[in-house]
Amino acid sequence: MRTIIEPFRIKTVEPIYFNTKEQRARILENAFYNPFLIHSQDVLIDLLTDSGTSAMSSNQWAGIMKGDESYAGSPSFFHFSNTIQEITGMPFIIPTHQGRAAERILFEIMGGKGKYFVSNTLFDTTRANIEFSGAEGVDLICEEGRHPGIPADFKGNMDTAALEKFIIDKGAHTIPLVIITVTNNSGGGQPVSMQNIKEVRKICTQHQIPLFIDACRFAENAWFIKLREEGYAHKPIPEIVHELFSYADGCTMSAKKDAFANIGGFLAMHSEALALQCRNLLIITEGFPTYGGLAGRDLEAIAIGLKEVMEENYLQYRIRSIEYLTEKLVAAGVPVMRPGGGHAVYLDAKEFLPHIPVDQYPGQALACALYEEGGIRSVEIGSLMFGKYDSQEKLIPATLELVRLAIPRRVYTQSHIDYVAEVVIDVFKNRNLMQGLAIIEEAPALRHFTVKLKPIN
Ligand code: F0G
């Protein structure tokens, strides 16, 4: 088999500014050991997120010029909504400025005290919007999803037995929605199988609970279904995607992921009554229903990106590049989530740094070390992001301590990825010298974005 090449040529480039390890040590100290507080020009390879960081295609840029900025009834909106209707089969499409704006609207309507939103794993903003409404978010990930080092095909699956038990324990009336996140971002970018979605649908139908998809990475998930699930090898991606959405009553989507857009999102659904409520809220905070907080040009870029992301040459290259980095790290003995995810490689910080206890945030310590060593910016997805405190102010840790190396779409080449592997392996060789971190300042919700830390000596 020949090398799977990047299925694009480069037309515009952005410079990377180089700095030294000594400079980075100072930058890190000034940023209170929080990579979110580092200026992006001080970063060599930015793997903080795959969200909003994609390189747009020449077609998308052409769409930007075509964008119609009319306040109401813009043709760009109809391009956007027709495309999403075609992909999802859902009739009611509501644009929002990004994914969490869609979540905020949905949970403000459906949430509230005493309610549970049950998921394979909720992303942090989704959970935060649920909790902000007074409701509770519940993650019921399958057993395979709990073991980073043990490979399995669909580690993003929901534990359907646990779902049934939860519904019986709490009563279906307390559960306004079941949400399946594809791919499962917080659980390693792992895919959910069509079989699992079908089973969850069946349970939801039995108990009359609507099913929504958090569809940020729907195309990556569809590619895994094509590769790994029986009966899908010869199906075109749009068909797989269509089937996936056919089991859902609605979806939220951040177009900053699998739409190659730098901003944007939407809600899509079958229920006209719910759509009406969502639009009423939308008008108060996002904008008129035919732009929803976006410019007409953004709507065009999203409509075009949603089609491009389903191209098989792209998906093959995309998933292969994650697998390529995973293989290099595994070969060097670095503990990573296996198999590789759809949009990111996840380092297992608990295994990487067994000498740092979870309340000293090994994932954050590792993210800082990657920056200092090679200027790579990553993000902790562990107890800093998801940790809670008990009544004695003691940390209730997250299930997993991961560091995510999220790969922006169509941005970095193979030599960038080779460099990333070299830096991670160098940090791994010197892991015994690394220390934990202590929090000196934190916000009550989504603390990882603004938290300040210091090394523990
Ligand atoms: N759902 C999932 C699964 C996500 O990964 C994200 C964002 C959102 C919802 C919210 O979308 O950012 O447009 O408001 N994830 C980004 C990340 C931030 O880095 O994984 P948003």
Describe the structure.
- It is a single chain.
- The chain has 457 residues and is an alpha/beta fold.
- It contains 16 helices and 16 strands.
- A hairpin with a 5-residue loop joins strand 12 and strand 13.
- The relative contact order is 0.16.
- The structure holds ligand F0G.
- The site of ligand F0G has 15 residues, from helix 4 and helix 5.
Per the principal axes of the C-alpha atoms, what is the gross shape? globular
Give the class-level CATH name of the largest domain: Alpha Beta
By secondary-structure content and strand pairing, the structural class works out as alpha/beta
Q: How many structural domains in the coordinates? A: 2
Q: Mean of the pLDDT scores? A: 96
CATH level-four homologous superfamily name of the largest domain = Type I PLP-dependent aspartate aminotransferase-like (Major domain)
Radius of gyration based on Cα positions = 21 Å
The CATH architecture assignment of the largest domain turns out to be 3-Layer(aba) Sandwich
Low-pLDDT regions: none
Major sheet: 7 strands, mixed
Identify every distinct bound molecule in the structure, by name, code or SMILES: ligand F0G
CATH topology of the largest domain: Aspartate Aminotransferase, domain 2
